[in-house]
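For the sake of transparency, this paper describes our internal protein records without simplification. Because each token names a local backbone shape, the row as a whole describes the fold. One such record is reproduced below, unchanged from the form in which we store it:
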Amino acid sequence: MRKTWQLPFFTIWTGQAFSLLGSHLVKFALIWWLTESTGSAAVLATATTMGMLPTILLGPFAGTLIDRLKRKWVLILSDASTALFTVLLGLLFWLGIAQPWHVFLTILLRAVGDAFQNPTMMTTTAMMVPKEQLSRVAAMNQALQGILGFVAPGLGALLLALAPMQGILALDVVTAIIAIAPLFFVAVPQPAPRAKRMTPRSFLADTGFGFRYIWDYRGLRHFVGTGVVVYLTGMPMVAFVPLLITRHFQGGATELALVQSALGIGAILGGLIASVWGGFRRKMTTVVVGSTVSVLGWLIVPLLPAQAYRIAVALYFVAAIAQAIRLAPTQAIMQSIIPPEVQGRVFSCDSSLRQASGPLALFIAAPIAEAVGVRPVMVFGALGCLLATALRYWIHDVYDIEDSVAPPVPVAAAEA
């Protein structure tokens, strides 16, 4: 089976890539519509929050269901549900009665589907791809995200100029169909069947299992914990890039677009390098080296003088390459050390912890940035990320996590 994994896996992967393209186009179009319709920062912040809430609040519950249900059907239903909600919003645009709150609700409901789809695809990948190839596949995912981040805004802007909003939303339905169709013909591996019936009490216990597993697995606890530190300190560093470009480098939309392009192209190149190279023999070495190079780039940029804009663009480009190279083995480590029968719960809880740290970080950092400026906040964020990277090297339980033995999964949890 391992010798013939490429065709079935990449059949599913290609379909999901089309679905991601549709989702990126929809997100761009909706955010642009909200921007043109309201011009309100609060409205855009609300839309962003709607997109994050389901992963934060429902992620652990979704993980419990993912570990119990047929993963093929979780993928099918999550793609189909997001397409359905998009159709309903498209109908409102066609009737000319769409309001911002309709968009908020659609973003929220689509994000519920994503809360199921993303961890399910991660667990499916871990079961279909040989362990030694997980880093390369994760690198391909990073390259894909870079391509989508680079292509979707331009393509979305072109479509907005050529087609009405309902026409753009209809494209998401087409890409969802492309993603769903292969799932009816390709076998999706499933962990050993679970015999235990689900009750409300057992459901809640199983939902908490993902957090308990992370906590009890010493190396994983520190690995996830340092990842949360990266999100806490790094989120403001990334979010305040537009303000750094406009306030410090005295740039405008063109200068910001050039930085975003550098980040996107860097992510593509980094993903391609990682997929061909595969990284160092020890995945954590790739993570630590890639993180260090990336963070140093982010650290130096806010320290540059205002006239050094071109150097800033170059540093962002290098940082994006290194970031993509380090993200691939990070995902592969999680997929290789966690037993398949509990991956849904563990991945979802890990995602919830990281996603929850982002809004908290921005809530704390925003007033500080208004008081002292964005540059000190960005420098502090980079230093925090650098500290987390150093801890991943210094803490043996983290650096040697690939060699660790995962704690046994209790029978009750495995049958959840």
Q: What stands out?
A: The chain is about 80% helix and 0% strand. The two ends are 27 Å apart (CA to CA). The longest helix spans residues 6-38.
